Amino acid sequence: MNKTVNTIKIGLIMLVGFLIMQFAASNVFLANSPKVRPNWQKYVAVKIKSYFDSTIDQIALVIPFSNKAVALKETEKKIEELKNTPLIKTAPGVYADSAGKYSVIKLDEMTYKVYTYTINGKTINIKVLSGGTPPTQEMLEMAY
Description:
This protein is of the alpha+beta class. The protein folds into two domains: 2-82, no CATH class; 110-143, no CATH class. The protein is built from four helices and five strands. Helix 2 crosses helix 3 (67-83). The protein is flat, with a radius of gyration of 27 Å. The model has no long low-confidence stretch (mean pLDDT 84).
């Protein structure tokens, strides 16, 4: 009986050690190298906090009267309301309701003009809405 308990303890210790190493390999060390991340303490703290925050958010969505669940229901209700709202086409690819409170932009329906620039030996294509002014070469060189 004592031998079985010791075997289980050793197995659990090995499993916990493996999980800690998996976490450390992807969060403490840089890009699968032996170099330690310079800000590893802060990075690990943020990772752990974001994990617990997302877990708490998921739990809050399951509780029927939590603030997050109520907000989600209100958002879903508003989306359903918007789906039934008739929209008027105001420009190519732009739709709005008659009250002017909501608008929908469909990028695939908009007309673009493509401008080609060469920056640092690379060819870059920029889409600009028809009627819009294209960026200058100097502006793009600053951005790239």
